Amino acid sequence: MKTMLRLTACGLALLSALPLSAQDGEEPQDEAGEERREIIVTGRGLDPALSTGIYATTTLEREAIVAAPSGRIEDVLRNVAGFQQFRRSDSRSSNPSAQGVTLRALGGNATSRALVLLDGVPLADPFFGYIPLSAIAPETLGTIRVTRGGGSGPFGAGALAGTIDIESAEPGATQGFLGSAAINDRAETEATGVLTQRLGRGFAIASGRWDRGQGFFTTPEDQRVPATARAAFDSWNAALRAVAPLTDTVEVQARVAAFRDNRTLRFEGADSFSNGEEASIRFVGRGDWQFDALAYVQARDFGNVVISSTRFTPTLDQRRTPSTGIGGKFELRPPLLEGHDIRFGVDYRRADGELQEEALNAVTGRITERRRAGGATGNLGIFLEDDWQIGPLTLNGGLRADRTSITGGFYRAVTPTGALVSEIVAPDRSDWAVNWRAGALLYLTRRLDIRAAAYTGLRLPTLNELYRPFVVFPVTTEANANLVNERLEGFEIGFDWQPVNEVVIAVTAFDNEVENAIANVTVGPNLRRRANLPAIEARGIEASVAAKFGTVSLDGALAWTDAEVRGRGTSADLDGNRPSQTPEFAATLTLGWEPAAGWRLAGTLRHVSTQFEDDRETDRLAPATTLDAFLAAPLGGGVSLVARAENLTDEAIITRNQGGSIDLGVPRTFWLGVRYGF
Q1: How confident is the model at residue 24 (pLDDT cuts 50, 70, 90)?
Q2: Order of strands, sheet of 141-148, starting from the edge strand that comes earlier in the sequence
Q3: Distance separating alpha carbons of residues 103 and 557, to the nearest angstrom
Q4: What is the arithmetic mean of pLDDT over 274-281?
Q5: Do 146 and 77 form a contact (C-beta atoms < 8 A)?
Q6: Rounded distance, CA 600 to CA 591, Å?
Q7: Which pLDDT band holds residue 519 (cuts at 50, 70, 90)?
Q8: Burial group, residue 59, by CB count within 10 angstroms (0-12, 13-18, 19+)
Q9: How many alpha carbons fall within 13 Å on the CB side of residue 192?
Q10: Beta bridge partners of 410
Q11: DSSP type of residue 338
Q12: If you write DSSP's letter for every residue of 493-512 in order, what string do you get?
């Protein structure tokens, strides 16, 4: 925390010293009184490289981001072919530690296999690897660029299934002030405020969001007991971001943020919390020698109370899991060769944390065991990449070397009197790994591009997977301090076709295999253990269509994936099974109508096919089809009426099924609110 506060203070002090005193409307002049070139400060990172089009990439613009029927970022991301959370539940009704995100059906546990960045900073929790979705306010965002596959290169370790690159909105998008408030038919509320202030040639944006409500019953009516509770939630997030020019071509970006999320799941007293603070500072140079230099620090914590499903009293108090993530990146793009876009640089990330929990007697409530577990992981990467443009052909080649380390790992359980019950002291280990990617994009005609790529990737096991056992009653899942890194090998081929100006169609066929895939493997009745499977292979097709005819638009995406566990030897009994929580087919279709400025009416139809809760395919999650709606209507004076509907058909969305014990997703929900901007 002290490190974060020091970085925050340094960043704000630096910004306060920048030349921000020029008044709005004044044109800067040199000593001779000559007018100088206007400096445009955007707050973005460097422009996407030429190779972005080589890999399967989807870009979501602000208009789609702020029009999600649920008002939450995971709902926005579901519009991308292949996007998947570990569970179908959203960030109001799931355990925060289960909010892993992945792409291409490469799931299997709650850890993220996709790298999620916000203004270049990785968002994954340092201990668990989940994404704090409730800490991301869609109203503050400008674009989201999702790249599936292509995990190596300058993105960093962790981009095993792809990268979700989120950028904050430019000052013009959020106006001077943007505020919204809404209430739903369960009297749950949400409120957001975004204040933008021009500071000479720079700007600052302060934002905050607060969501709270009693929630809905995730437990089916026929399984409820007197101790059954609604999925109550109370979460807030706040951020301050400032951007200013240092020179005509260099700008500095600083950000500080904090969030807190409290939830209750299934039973009274089954409360969880997650919170975090972070600070980052970034220097972006857009001259002939372009560069991006970033440093960040994160402090996170998590706690959870496990309630017995027979006595309905606490059996485990996971009271704290403090963790810290620090890191940075430096990327340089020198103008060395004509027709080449060369990038090279280095990035680093270190995560450390410690679980602190007590096992409780379900009858007396007394502590029976005290447990501590934790350690640190580190990753130092060096990368080099080149995009070479030869007329209508763009070639890409990248090489990356990573030094990974796992240190200080331990698990220790003692009695209340301090007597040792069990202890694991894991040996320190480190390794070097080399990854690569290569691809080509050919502009075959003015309306047709074809592309092909091959790549490898890397992901370290998280501290959670290595050292933290957990219980989702009645199943206990053990940690495994001997887990090794996951490795990806994959290739894809696809095309982008614009048959007419108003329609764009993209199709990608892929084959990805994750060796040493970490999964929760059943080892006995109600007992699982994290283990490295020989491999998970996912082959499939992703497709998307975007069309706009006057005031009517259509956006659709689908993913069909044949995902299988490759069980050679120790996991032969799982050979051919689908990884847990991975659907074979998922599709989304949004039809929108914008009859005039400020108006928008849209409906979104989604379908996800059957999934399995467990690795042995014994607990089935039935397919689900949902219909959502969104309406924005201007009332005048900068005020708009906003109406939203989730799951209009009240589909029963099964999010968990363990031996018949079921949790459900969001039921039919109506929201009504106002949005004000000036």
Answers
A1: very low
A2: 57-61, 141-148, 162-168, 114-118, 121-122
A3: 13
A4: 97
A5: yes
A6: 10
A7: confident
A8: middle
A9: 21
A10: 374, 425
A11: T
A12: EEEEEEEETTEEEEEEEEEE
- Which of 77, 61, 62, 70 is CA-nearest to residue 182? 70
CA atoms within 13 A on the CB side of 492: 34
The residue count of the chain comes to 678
Predicted pLDDT at 237: 97
Burial label, 150 (beta-carbon count in 10 A; 0-12, 13-18, 19+): buried
How far apart CA 211 and CA 188 sit, in angstroms, is: 8
Encoding tokens for residue 218?
């995730």
Per-residue exposure over 178-202, b if at least 16 CB sit within 10 Å of its own CB, e if not = bbbbbebeeebebbbbbbbeebbbb
pLDDT of res. 574: 83
Residue 460 CA to residue 464 CA, distance in Å, equals 11
Radius of gyration over every alpha carbon of the chain, rounded to an integer in angstroms: 25
The CATH fold of domain 2-19+39-677? Maltoporin; Chain A (2.40.170)
**Dist. CA 388–CA 384, nearest whole Å:** 13
* CA 324 from centroid of its chain's CA atoms: 18
Question: How far, rounded to the nearest angstrom, does the alpha carbon of residue 7 sit from its chain's CA centroid?
Answer: 24
Residue 458's contacts (CB-CB under 8 Å, 6 or more residues apart) are: 151, 152, 157, 158, 160, 402, 404, 433, 435, 485, 486, 487, 488
| CA 634 from centroid of its chain's CA atoms | 32
Contact 26, 39 (CB under 8 A): no
- What is the distance, to the nearest Å, from the Cα of residue 449 to the centroid of all Cα atoms in its chain? 29
Domain ranges within the chain, ordered by starting residue: 2-19+39-677
**Residues ≥6 apart with Cβ < 8 Å to 58:** 80, 81, 145, 146, 148, 506, 544, 557
Residues 6+ apart with CB under 8 A from 16: none
pLDDT for 406-460, tens place per residue?
Answer: 999 999 999 999 999 999 999 999 999 999 999 999 999 999 999 999 999 999 9
Tell the residue number behind the tokens 């600083």, with chain if given: 254
Report whether pLDDT(156) > 90. Answer: no
